[in-house]
# Entry
Amino acid sequence: MFITDLSIRRPVVSAVFSMILVVFGLFVFWKLPVRELPSGLQPPVVQVQVDYQGASAEIISSEIVEIIEDVIGGAEGIKNIDSTSENGRATIKIEFDTSIDLDAATNDIRDRVSRVSDNLPEDADAPEILKQSAGFTTSMWLSVSSTTWSDLEIGDYTRRYLVDNFSNVKGVGRILVGGLRELSVRIYISPAKLAANDLTVQEVEQALRRENISLPAGSLEATNIDLTINLDKAYKDLFSIKQLPIKKIKNSVIRLENIAEVKYGPVSEKTLFKAQSKDGHPNEKVVGIGIYAKSGASTVELSKKIRERIKVVQKTLPDGIKLGVSFDRA
# Structure
């Protein structure tokens, strides 16, 4: 009743108070972050990822997933554990109650995984711990395309120069490169030539490990100078790799080029990324850059900052390379 009486007796005062509320509301409105799921509605999720090249899904499950699941199962506030075993990779997602702090949960999982990291296979990569929100998906996908560059060259340029350009944008939590075909040296051994020279694949592998090394060999101390000695037998280019000696027979040496084809190629032939646009070319090679928003970041604000950074980066792109937005969740 007091507010009603005041409004009737002093209409000017009530109008001033109303204007103050309107101005304050407008000010706060423009400061509100825009997100699909506000804080408190999305439970924190921690993801553990381990890469083990060449291992089958069964080996991944028994030698990696089960070991990690056993050690993280006792963490506080766990709501659900979802594990995926596939050829070459193990992915474990741990969902926590909404009352659990994401940073604290991540540190707890990291400590627990580090206890069993020595029990994982020697050839497996170190476990990667990622903190995310439930339904953690890319906020944006950028496409790096060219009709004159190969997919290997585009991937190498993207990894070396573009990833860092977008990683330091405020609000970016993680960068994922889609369709990246990493440059590597591929050796295609001919079974016929191998048999003709009385060789096995194991002997070729041993020769590659034995000859292509770089090791410290101690130091040489003198009165006025100290020298560091290195044993450098690492091969720097395709020609030197092709000349690698595999076996000596009487007065001749069988080299790698005599039994195999050596050339540059992707680490995996199974990786592919496609993007379509109005001005796209059917023969374009494309590599994608997936941008994940940091926990608590505004998707709309992140989209604006990424688009501003794209305009800056486009000025420095080499000839033949195009950079654009393929998908924007904002």
Observations:
- The chain has three domains: 37-136, 137-182+267-330, 184-263.
